[in-house]
Every structure is written in C-alpha cells, then in structure tokens.
Amino acid sequence: MSVDPELVDMMDGVFADYRDKHPVATGADRNLWQRLDELGLVRLTGAEEKGGSGAGWFEAAELLSAAVRHGVRIPLAEHDLLAGWLLDVSGLPADSELRTVCLLDKNGHATDVPWAATADRVALVWRADGQYRVADVAAGQLGITPGTNLIGEPRDTVTADVTGLDAAPAALAVVNELRLKSGLVRAIQVCAALDRILQLCIEHVSSRVQFGRPLSKFQAVQNLVSDIAAEAALARAATEAALTAGVAHQWSADNLAFLVAVARSCAGHAASVVVRNAHQVHGAIGTTREHRLHEFTRAALAWRSEFGSMRYWDDQVTDAAMYASAGGLWGLIGG
C-alpha cells in the first residue's frame, strides 16, 4: 500500500487541526464537510470527470484512518466509497451532498443505517421482481427514525415507499460488491482504532511511574501491551491483504469474499483483547470521560458489529474453509 506521504500528512493535519478546535467530536460537522470538499477529500475516489479526485482505495483507507486516529466522526466512507460508488456504477448522478446507503428488506425497511438522520440523500438498494434496483432519494422523502451506536454516531431506521421511484437496475454482482466493500470499510476503521489504542498504551506505560519505576518495566504490563500489539498487527495484516486483493483484481478476485471475512473476523476478535488489555493498562484513569482512551475502545467495539456481526463473518470464514476442503484451502488463502 503506497500512498504519497505528503497527502497523508495533509489528511492528518486537517483532522488534527479540527480536534484542536473541537475537543469534543461532534460528527457530520457541515463546516468540516465543506472544508473537506474544498480539499477534494469528500469524493476522493470519484472520477475526475464527475467532480471527484480520481484517487483509489489506498488513499481512501489512509483518509479513513486519519479521521479515526483523531477521533473525528464523519461519513466519508458511506458517502464516497459506498453511496458515491454505487451511484456511479448504476449510471446515476451524484454531487457533494452528504449521502449514505442502505439495503431495504422486502417491506421497505432498513435498520442501523449509518448517518441517515444527518444525510441529505440516501442511496437505496432493494429487490423487486427478481432484480435489484438503485435509487438516489432525498432524505426528506423517507421515514427516518433516529438511533445511535455505542459512540453516538447515527444508526437509524429507514422506511421507504419504492413505488414510482426513478431507479436504475443493479446486477447481483454489484450488490455483493457493496456488501464486501461495506464490511471492509469497518475493518479499516477498527484497525485504525486499535493502532491508536496501542499508541496510547505505549505513551501511558512509558510516562506513568509506579513504585519508583515506569509501568513499562513491569513484566505483567509488558505482556498486556505486547498482546495488544500482536492482535492489532494481525488485524491490520488481514485487512491490508483483503484491500490489496480487492484493488489488484478490481474487486473480482475469487477469494475476495473469504479475505474480507477473515479481515472482519480478525479485527473483531482483536478488538476484544485490545480493549480489555488497554483498560487494564490504564487502570481507573482509562474509564474517565476526560481521557481519550474510550473514544477508540468504544469505537472499535461499535464498528466490529456493523455491516455484519462478528458471528456472521466468523461463519463466512468457516463455511468457505469447509467448502474449499483441505486441498483447496491454501489456494483460498493465497489466491
């Protein structure tokens, strides 16, 4: 994953500057959204001829990670990588209005839709008459019941009457790709949160003195931190493997579904160990609202259950491995 270091520094600078001025993350801040739009970051992966910046998923992953590192909550993934991409491949126009995406059930409902209550428009996907359809609908035309996840991000219930909507057909392959991209987005965000937790732990044990020496000198503490580092690294490796395969094969690799499932499974299980150990390392101070640890531990726990639960992704890994059998398992892993 090679990304221009100057671009990464610029992304970090934007979010660091925002958090310096906004100690409490507000989420979906329209002033920040406008600034990101002016910098070409809102539709980072959109085609240049359609008003995007023409970048790729590697750059987008760095952008998402930068936002997570600084505790900024904003629907860049939902707007660009999911809704924007879906409208592009469906031949529907998309502008810089804040968007999210949801897959409706047969009754026209969707639950836990990210950012629907704060979005301008929602890219709807539903199945009718044996075919999937896509429509870009103003949020005001939908029934939206607000809700939140563990860290206060909007996770809403959406109800839509799809009758008469100006819709475009969508192939099953597009819908499956949307599912995989949605799952991978959350893996990227969880990994960024785990990396930030590790950094906070290292800073804490290096500076905190107990019984006349830094916490980092105690073997029990070293074991806790080393487990955090190992789990975070495993999750990151699995996620980067899935992302690299997706980009290299234009999201059509035979083993992509398996790799995304592995990434989500590894990231989800890593979150359990990292969050538990991090709060043990920090002790009582880590449970206070004033300390920033909770911004990342709660985020990791919230995101690991979105766009598919841990059990769902674990089952996907197991089913793929069982279907491949011993003879095909290595090919499934290596591609």
Automatic annotation (TrEMBL):
It comes from Mycobacterium gordonae. This is Acyl-CoA dehydrogenase. Belongs to the acyl-CoA dehydrogenase family. PANTHER family: ACYL-COA DEHYDROGENASE (PTHR43884), ACYL-COA DEHYDROGENASE FADE28 (PTHR43884:SF20). Its cofactor is FAD. The keyword Flavoprotein applies. GO terms for molecular function: acyl-CoA dehydrogenase activity; flavin adenine dinucleotide binding. Residues 186-308 form the Acyl-CoA dehydrogenase/oxidase C-terminal domain. The keyword Flavoprotein applies. Keywords: FAD, Flavoprotein, Oxidoreductase.
